[in-house]
Structure formats: structure tokens, C-alpha cells
Amino acid sequence: MICKIFIVDDDPFFGEMLKYHLKLNPDYEIHLFDTAKECLSNLFKNPDIICIDFGLPDIPGDELFKQIKNFYPNLPIIVISGQESIDVAINFLKQGAKDYIVKNEHTKDLLWNSIIRVRENISLKQEVEDLKEELEKKYTFEKTIIGQSESIKSIFSKINKALHSNINVSITGETGTGKEVVAKAIHYNSARKSKPFVAVNMAAIPKDLIESEFFGHEKGAFTGATDKSIGKFEQANGGTIFLDEIAELDLNLQSKLLRALQEREIIRVGGNQKIKLDVRVIIATHKNLANEVKKGNFREDLYYRIVGLPIELPPLRDREQDTLILAKHFIDLFSKENKIKPLNLSSEAKNKLLKYSFPGNVRELKSVIDLACVMADGNEITVEDINFYSIKNESDVLLSEQKTLKQYTTEIILHFLKKNNNDVIKTAKVLDIGKSTIYNLINNPETKKLNDQ
Hints:
This protein is α/β, with parallel strands linked by helices. It has four domains: 3-133, Response regulator (Rossmann fold); 143-312, Rossmann fold (3-Layer(aba) Sandwich); 316-395, Helicase, Ruva Protein, domain 3 (Orthogonal Bundle); 403-452. It is 47% helix and 13% strand. The chain contains 21 helices and 14 strands. The strands form four sheets. A five-stranded parallel β-sheet has the order 2-1-3-4-5, sandwiched between helices. Strands 7-8-11-6-12 form a five-stranded parallel β-sheet. Strands 9-10 form a two-stranded antiparallel ribbon. Strand 3 (49-53), helix 3 (61-71) and strand 4 (77-81) form a beta-alpha-beta unit. The two termini are 52 Å apart. Residues 393-397 have low confidence and may be disordered. This is Nitrogen regulation protein NR(I). InterPro entries: AAA+_ATPase, AAA_lid_NorR, CheY-like_superfamily, Homeodomain-like_sf, P-loop_NTPase, Sig_transdc_resp-reg_receiver, Sigma_54_int, Sigma_54_int_dom_ATP-bd_2. Residues 4-118 form the Response regulatory domain.
């Protein structure tokens, strides 16, 4: 991220030397001024940091400092001076200067390090502000979990029940149904909302690193452990840990997770100090955990420990008109993020969306809508702008639209007729049906219309 830095110094050689040195960092955009008035007239450019010389000819450094602070009280200012007076330095620091650097042969290095510290502080403050903004958002379910179907209303009811205790929650559902969104809705509406929400995807972490990711490690615990590391559970202390794709966890590590949850404490890898835990656990999986227990892939004792309050998210195809409600939400979101006028869905486009079953669920719908917004000409998304890119197997593709059994049967027969070069006898043999069934189908006007499409 580019950092815009103003340098104000009436010594052209010294100013150019500082500018040259700082520009070695490609993230720094340096603006050099030799008078205080020139600096003040350019404040509209919104610098991130200002470095001012104490002994300027037109306006004294302390006066320039006050004027900048009057306009931008939170703007970081570093004072560079030829004076080694402790009193002057203390006075500037008391007024809010981020640093006071004396001019000598080390100035450029001291300034370099000072700017790094200021940027780190700015970054930390931004993280705090982002967290406050996240917490101050109205995490009402209607704004984070979009939909009005009866199946979604039942999810709201279960989430409400989860808010009044620290019971573990297990969220199941197909990929793309919004399991992490529900987990966040629970956390940010609970008494733990001011504490961390830490998400861990089991499927994304190599098996030999999961224990360290969970519980952290001490320096020298294993080859490559050059420093102490705080694990995800310790990071989430006081808050919520979200264990996504929990069914992918190795059986050996399942026992260690079970012990940590039972004892409510962990020990870092390579350490011996017990660390107490106060963490709410929310788990998610697209698999049926009870079936995984029966298959021997998941520990029964861990299953009963984490199942808590079960919430099963419905697939998008079972959510009635929620598809169109979500589509409008994603259109508005795309329009806002890309600063374009909101688009409308044509009636044909709406029908196409409603007929498709979305095997990728809400995540797939968002992808389809984002592409449609890009492809649309004018203010309306047409049926031609709606494109589905299925990565499922052939049977999933065949069943991706809601049709009658008769319609599916017709399509299957036509598919094999085409595959067999319209050989009726061969097709009848392959499908184990009578030839008359195929001839009747071929002569049906509706079939001819379908075959011409």
C-alpha cells in the first residue's frame, strides 16, 4: 500500500538526500517542499506522514506543527531539527509529534526506522477501527443471511437459541450454503462479540501442521520452529473458534482436540505450560458426521462433544423464491462495489435462475450474478447474460434443472438416439425399452420442437 510522505526542509541538498533514501522503498511516494507555506497549500493531497524541519525561514517549525494539527489532528508528524535541545524535543512530543530526530550523519536511517514504526502504528489502529466497524455493524440475521423462505426462517430461530448460551454449534449443509456466514452471525450477536472470531479450514492445512496450527508451538519444538507461535485456540480465547470441514480432521488429531475440549486447556507443541481456554466452538462440514462415525472416520466421543446445537442449512434449490432475493442482493452489492448503476433482471432471466438447481448453492449464484453484471448491456440483465458453468458430473448436470419425469425421459431417449446416429433398434436395446416407445416419442410434435432447440 502506497504511503504518501511530505518532507519540508529549506536545505535543498539535505531534503533531496532524504527523498532519495526514502524512495528506495517502492511503497513510499515522496513530496519535497522547501517552505512551510508550500506544505500547507498541498495538504489537500492527504499525506500519510509529514516530516518537518524545525528551522524553516517563512514559518517556524513549531508554528507549522500547530497549523497542521489544527487541520489534521491525527496526522503523524516527525520533527527533524538541528537543535539538540531536550526541552524542545519534549515539548514537541507532548504536543503529539511521533518522533524528534536531530540532524546528523544518522538522520536518514533514524527517519527510515521512525517511519516504519509510525506505519506499524497506523496499521494497528486501522485493524482496531476495522474491528470496531465489524462490531458496530448491525449483524441482524436479515442483513447477513438473506432470504424469506420458511426454511431460512427456521434457521433464524435456531440461531436465536444459540445466542443465549455457550453451547457448541454444529453447522451442516452442502458446499456454498453459507456455513461461515451463520457462524459469524452467531458470534457477532452473542456476548462474545467483542472478542476474536477465528476461522480454521481443516481441509486447507497439511496434516502434519494442524496440531501446531491448533495449539501453537514453542521455539525449537521442531525443525523450522525458529520462534514461538500462538495457535488458533489461544488466539480465539474469550471468543469463538470456527472449525470448518471438521470431518477432514485426522483421527489421531481428533483425540488431541477431544482432550483439549474436555480439559478446557492446551499445551503448545514442545512446551509443558498448560494454557486455560475459554472458547466457544462452532464446527461445520458438508458431510454427515453421524455417518462418518459409523464408517469409523470420526470419533464417536468427539462427535457427542462438538455436535451441540445442530443447524442444517438448506440447499438453495429448496429455498423457494430466495434465489431471486439473493440475486437482487448480489446485483446491488456488485453495483455498489464497482460504482455502477443498479441493474434489473428481465423476467426471462428470472425464470432461468429459478429453473436451475445451483449445485454450488449461494456461492455459485453470486458467481453467476457477478458475471451477468459484467456481461449486461444497458440497465437490464437478460437471459443471455445468465451463464452456468457446472463442474459436477454428468448426472448432476442432467438433474440441474427442475423438470417432470416425462421431460427427463424424453431428453434421455433423444440423447441416446443422437449418440447412436438415430438407430432406433440400438437405442431401444441400450435403454431396455420397446421400439414403439421411441417411435411414439419421435412422432410427438412436442418432441420435435424440443429436438429442434
